[in-house]
Amino acid sequence: MKVRLVVVLLAITANIGKLQLAPVGLGIENANSVVIFIDNCNHNIERNNIFDTALPIKYISLSNCPSKRFFYDRNMLWNKLFYIRKRPTIVILRQGQLVYKSNNIEILKDADDIVRIHKPSYQIGIRAGYKIKFDGLHKFTGLIVFWKNKCLWCKKEALEINNLCRLLNTVIISDSNTMPALLPACKNLAPWHLYNDWSIPGAPTHIMVQEGVIEWIDVGYRENILDLVRHNK
Question: Which of 1, 99, 127, 188 has the CB geometry, 3.0–4.6 Å to 171, for a possible disulfide?
Fold first, then answer.
């Protein structure tokens, strides 16, 4: 049993950062596309003449570039969501979900084949930009957290989720349909059927919502979810 548990935990850990979706902002929430993360406006990627792809290409920059071709990630949300630690980083999305990520710009030559062949690690029924229809949340602004009571990764996040409940309007959706004992600071609960209605692939999953519209979705354990939420501001 212990061996099986270790294998499962290692598998989940290996997928951290690979289960991401495009947030709102660039119009690629449901699109096949290439996102290139760069440090500043003086990148030289295009000079390599390797852009043999029909996919739309979006640049995410840490600098405020004069050209409108570059999206200024002022609050680092895109970089945080996709766990970008080195640039340039190439992210290939299929219907808004990450299917390939690399620091090798040469993969741009194969981007069309990659998006055709590679499938997302999981299927999810919602995207950023989705308008929530459930009555209790259709005008909601804040964070939604999906939680399972036997989920070790949920328990690892408990301290930060409690802090978020004190700082932000936060709704917990738990598989017990009751508030988890580990979350005494959290007061708002929504029904578990939304887990299946939205085809949520696992817990924990974090969803930021603005007036009933999903802004971003973060699937899986995050070591510092408080930091991600702060970057949403």
Answer: 188
Question: Do 59 and 112 have their domain in common?
Answer: yes
pLDDT tens per residue, range 68-80: 888 999 999 999 9
* Cβ count near 190 (within 10 Å): 19
Q: How many CB atoms neighbour CB 71 within 10 A?
A: 15
Phi then psi for 167, rounded to 5 degrees?
A: -100, -25
Select from 82, 117, 152 the last residue of a domain.
117
**pLDDT at residue 215 in the model:** 97
What are the Cα distances from residue 199, in Å, to 1, 58, 93, 96, 156?
Answer: 28, 28, 19, 15, 23
Whether the Cβ atoms of residue 26 and residue 128 lie closer than 8 Å to each other: no
Percent of the chain scored above 90 by pLDDT?
75
Same domain, 44 and 77: yes
End-to-end CA gap in the chain: 43
| 8 Å CB contact between 111 and 95 | no
* pLDDT above 80 for 15: no
Residues 81, 160: Cα–Cα separation, whole Å: 17
- Residue 214 within any structural domain of the chain: yes
> Could you tell me if residue 128 is inside a domain?
no
Report how many domains make up the chain: 2
- The boundaries of the domain holding residue 40 are 15-117
CATH code assigned at 204? 3.40.30.10
Q: What one-character DSSP code corresponds to residue 132?
A: P
